[in-house]
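Priority: medium. Attachment 1 of 2:
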């Protein structure tokens, strides 16, 4: 288990093994989430595109650009 010390200004250093595992770099933004059990989760505020690759299945049938534009207009987009 990795540990860190909180400074008087509320700052801490994220241990190197955690930064490496989560691919964190200087300047990255973090999000703090409190779950229902009161635990605090620290998450990257933005995801690398490679982390979400493959999450969506390809459409069952191809959709044309015109078909996409029609769907947008139908749902209240620009006319």
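Attachment 2 of 2:
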């Amino acid at each position: 288990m990795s540990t860190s010390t909180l400074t008087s200004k509320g700052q801490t250093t994220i241990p190197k093994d955690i930064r490496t595992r989560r691919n964190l770099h200087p300047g990255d933004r973090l999000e703090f989430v409190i779950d229902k059990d009161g635990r605090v989760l620290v998450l990257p505020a933005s995801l690398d595109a490679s982390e979400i690759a493959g999450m969506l299945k390809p459409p069952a049938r191809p959709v044309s650009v015109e078909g996409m534009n029609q769907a947008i207009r139908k749902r209240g987009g620009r006319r």
